[in-house]
Amino acid sequence: MSDVTSSTLVQSRRDFLQTAAAASAAGSLLLSPGLSPRVHAGGDDGIKVALIGCGNRGTGAASQALATKYNVKLWAMADAFADRLEGSLKALSSGKAGKYGVEKGAGFGAAIDVPKDRQFIGLDAFQKAIDCGVDVAILTGPPGFRPQHFDYAINAGKHVFMEKPVAAGPAGVRKILEVADRARKKNLKVGVGLQRHHDPSYLEAVQRIQRGDIGKLITLRAYWDGGPPAKVAIPKNNMTELEYQIRNWYFFDWLSGDHIVEQHIHNIDACNWVMGGHPVTAMGMGGRQVRTGKEYGNIFDHHAVEFTYADGTKMFSQCRQIPGCKNQVAEFVEGTNGSAYLNQGRCTLTRGEETLWAPPRRRPGEAENPYQIEHDVLFAAIANGSEHNEADYAASSTMTAIMGRFATYSGKEVKWDEALASNSVPMADALAFDTPAPIQPLPEGGYAIPIPGVTKPF
Ligand SMILES: NC(=O)c1ccc[n+]([C@@H]2O[C@H](COP(=O)([O-])OP(=O)(O)OC[C@H]3O[C@@H](n4cnc5c(N)ncnc54)[C@H](O)[C@@H]3O)[C@@H](O)[C@H]2O)c1
After folding, report:
1. Residue 4 banded pLDDT, cuts 50, 70, 90
2. Engineering a disulfide at 252: which of 152, 154, 263, 297 sits with its beta carbon 3.0 to 4.6 angstroms away?
3. For the sheet containing 190-192, what is the strand order?
4. Distance of CA 56 from the midpoint of ligand 1 (Å)
5. What is the pTM of this model?
């Protein structure tokens, strides 16, 4: 977990340049080896960023990188599809960066410098963007591709911000762990979009739980029950099968991990954070009851999992993407001497009717934005060379959610070591759209849907 608090984040641009200049004068010994010297030579060029995966979140993440206190430039963009890249560039240029991004009335101006020859399209576009003189890669494509993109970025000596989940299957998780270790050895910084770790209310609540304010922990509950995601199924027309699945990545487990991994990871990760580790077994149930159309790939629309940690503590998790039901996105922790409610900006610890701790009340618009803080922390670490690597706990939480999916797909009890060692889900690593897709449509259309009791865990 990150031990960087919001108070350690703020380094002004002047401080940054002074640090940089002093480090340059000292023969760059203080610099992080992954940074190109020009970043520290006065900062004229700024910290150059490549955005890889120019969708909704990528656009937001790029806006947050640009909104840090540092001299950041969006220098290259890469996407599998031209229309996505163009839409993202247009949005950023006009200062509209979507649901999670920073709105900047007049746009980001000269901070966006992505001429045609630094706009790359296709499945190998990520390599070209990483290789065109940038310092940082923002990896926000589908989770299945994350290990491939992360590996290439760290090999090329780039700092990384990558979205969660960091993989869709165990082979990808193992790759992330191996690459994260390499990143540490190269002193490259790695931030991951599990933004609860940068929400001041979570940071305080988790610290209080871990020091024993609510006693010994008995159970945890994690929920992401909501309606369908804002993802529309796109018809195949004359695409190749692989292109079709990547366009519709959300609905394929080998690309998204299913929504238990893609979305519910946030809640599962918060529970792992509280517990200081991952569960060792999972059993559960799930299915596809409402989102049944052939256009919706092979994922479920609901999962419920009982996870058990090594000390016997249970975490009950449920996630549902079905309209018209009770919605709830939060985590709950029960201890022998109190309870905790965990939710963005609103975490609260109670004992019966008594409030043990609640965050300060803020007026609308005053709340600290963890999506921004996670970028402030990352760019501060890049600027001052401090340690920052969030990949390990992200990999652990990604694997926990994958273990949950194995349990709901199979109906069997699944053990951590066996799940992590399995090779059942291929890592997405195609570089061209004419590569065969790892799962193929059925003769009658649609895809094989997992059946509990029949489908093997892995
Ligand atoms: N932290 C959060 O709260 C949060 C919120 C939303 C999304 N996310 C995560 O962000 C990631 C992206 O989600 P999104 O909602 O932006 O999806 P999206 O579909 O809007 O964006 C994904 C983009 O990646 C592109 N792409 C696909 N394959 C690619 C490849 N091989 N190389 C380069 N580009 C490729 C797609 O064309 C698309 O433009 C997911 O991992 C998701 O879980 C995180």
Report:
1. very low
2. 297
3. 119-121, 72-79, 47-52, 136-139, 159-162, 190-192
4. 7
5. 0.91
